[in-house]
Each structure stands twice: as structure tokens, then as C-alpha cells.
Amino acid sequence: MLIDKMYKMMETLALINSTLDEGKLLHLIMKAIKEVMEAEASSLMLLDPNTNELYFSTVEGGSEQVKEIRIRADQGIAGHVMQTGKPLIVNDVSKSEFFLKTVDQKTSFQTRSILCVPLLSRNKTVGILEALNKKGGKDFNEEDLKLFTAFSNQVSVAIDNARLYDMAFYDGLTKIFVRRYVEAWLETEYARVKRYNTDLSLVFFDIDHFKKINDTYGHQAGDFVLKELAATVKDMIRQADIFGRYGGEEFLVCLPETKVEKALYSAERLRKAVEEKEFIYDGKRILVTISLGVASFRQMPEDKVSRFIKDADDALYFSKEHGRNRVTLHGQEKKLKKAA
């Protein structure tokens, strides 16, 4: 029986180490714990260092309501394990001095037994892994504890790797790609586009009067606007599109296999969506608009990708200099200047 569990754990770890998406990773971990430990439910609690509270980050089985609950880092069985850094088996929670009844009371889940181990990162306890209620009314035993502790050690490495990946490729505030990732992707894609003479379009945009937003409402409001805007755009673009924060309030959307007409349509959709979105911060509505520049490889096949990005940037600059909250196609600005 133990050997079966070990094989299952090894299969799960292989699967866990194949993904660097932290959300998917945590879901896999919770599902695996529930299955391998033959538990009715599993949970991952993480420490919020700002409040010194534990919160339920990911759960499998039980009630999702538990995610609304926070407990002090010295409360309950989880808090005890957090403080001592030592794993714990409690097969009858009604006899435990540490058991916190309020969690069950708020979720209507009935906890009978808990297998609880610390999640360590660089020798620091950063969270707690729990397996709840062994199926068939059985008790958790020392073999379960050894297996669960070994599992926890590997899980912490996988989570660390996922977070390092996030830090390398994703902007911490907006959770979209960082500039260096976008530029690296563009270098590769641009070589392919030039070779096969296919389509690639860029939409470069930034937030109008962003400094005024910071000055009027504060930098936290500015951060809120950046996060909300990024989430809005991310929801509107295709899965194949690459969206990144280029710097400050500047953003770049790369549209592979996209003709200029479609790119202009997409840019206008983004402009309108941001203009119509309600940005409410601290009870106040913040008016947010963006200026956009579009460049198309077919329209202007530059030798270097840096020149291609500059084409989109030049078009953006024209939009900003001529009224803001508008879309300009590179090349079109010269015609507009002549007409003026």
C-alpha cells in the first residue's frame, strides 16, 4: 500500500515539475494530496507577512468559503505547526487544545482529523499543507506523516521555481509579461516573419495624463489603474497575442499573423473599452483613456525589430500630440500632417 502511494507521489511530482504556472501548480498539488493521502479534503495556507495571518490559498474538497477566512499565525493547529515548524497528526480534533472550531462553524465542514506539515522556503516556514479526514474513518499514521513531509519538501521547491519563473517573465504589479520577455519573443518572431513574409502587427499604447492621475489621487490609485487596465486588455486579446508592460505606463501588444486592418480594429476596441470602463478607487471615479500607435510589417517591412517597435512608438507619439485618446497607424501620421 505504501509503495503504491510512493509511486503515485512520484508521478504527481513529475507532473507538478512540468508546469511553471503557479495557479495550475497549486491546483495539482491540492488534488494530489487529497488522492495520495486518501483524504476528504486538502488545503494550502500561506502566511501574509504584512498582517502575520494565515489564509487559505488553495483548497480541494470541503468548502470554497474557507478562502474568505484568515486566522492569526499563532492560532489553531495550523498556527501551532507554523510556530513550531514541526509536522503534526491530530486524529481526533475534539481532543486537541489547538483546534480552532470557528473555521468549521463558518464553512459547515466537519473536521475529524488533520495531517499538518510546514511548507518551507529557504529554511523559513511560509505556509502550511493540510490533509483533512482520512477516508473510511481511518487514522493518519506515521507512514502518512513521513510521506506527506517528503511530499511537502518537493512541493516547496516546485513553488519556488514557479515564483522565480514569474519574477523573471511577469511584471509584479500587472501580472503581464515584462519588457525583456516581449523583446526576446519579438526578436524570434520577427526573424520568422521576415523569412516567410507573413503578417505581424504591433499596438503600442500608454495612459493619457498618467502623472496627473498619480498627483491627484496618489500612487496607490495609479497602481490600481495600471492593474485594472492590464486585466481589461488581457481579457480582450487572443491567447496567441503577447502583451507586456514596456515601461511605466507604456504597454505593447504583439499580434502575430494579423493584417493591418485587423490590428487597427483591435486597437480601436481596446481604446473604446478603456474609455468606457469605470475605474473606481476609494469611492472615486478616475477617468482613464489611452493613446495608441499601430505598426504593420506588411505596411512597413523594417530590417530590424527595433525599428519596427519605433514605428509603433512614433505612431503613438502622434496620437498623443494630436488630441490623445485615439489610434494612429504608422505612415498615416505623415499623410495627416500634410493634410493639416
Q: Please name the CATH architecture of the largest domain.
A: 2-Layer Sandwich
Give the strand order of the largest sheet, numbering strands 1, 2, ... along the chain.
3-2-1-6-5-4
Taking pLDDT < 50 over at least 5 consecutive residues as the criterion, the unreliable ranges are none
What's the alpha carbon Rg, rounded to whole Å? 26 Å
The figure for the number of domains is 2
End-to-end Cα distance: 81 Å
Give me some keywords for this one.
2 domains; 11 helices; 14 strands; alpha+beta; 6-stranded mixed beta sheet; Beta-Lactamase; 47% helix; Alpha-Beta Plaits; 6-stranded antiparallel beta sheet; 340 residues
Write the layout of secondary structure elements.
Layout: H1 2-16, H2 22-36, E1 39-48, E2 53-60, E3 70-72, H3 76-84, E4 88-90, H4 101-107, E5 114-121, E6 124-134, H5 142-169, E7 177-178, H6 179-196, E8 200-207, H7 210-217, H8 219-236, E9 242-247, E10 250-256, H9 260-276, E11 279-281, E12 284-286, E13 290-296, H10 305-321, E14 327-329, H11 332-339
Parallel strand pairs: 7-9, 13-14
Antiparallel strand pairs: 1-2, 1-6, 2-3, 4-5, 5-6, 8-10, 8-13, 9-10, 11-12
Mind explaining what this structure looks like?
The protein folds into two domains: 2-167, GAF domain (Beta-Lactamase), CATH 3.30.450.40; 177-339, Alpha-Beta Plaits, CATH 3.30.70.270. It has eleven helices and 14 strands. The chain has helices at residues 2-16, 22-36, 76-84, 101-107, 142-169, 179-196, 210-217, 219-236, 260-276, 305-321, 332-339, and strands spanning 39-48, 53-60, 70-72, 88-90, 114-121, 124-134, 177-178, 200-207, 242-247, 250-256, 279-281, 284-286, 290-296, 327-329. The strands form three sheets. It has a six-stranded antiparallel β-sheet, with helices on both faces. A hairpin with a 2-residue loop joins strand 9 and strand 10. The termini are far apart.
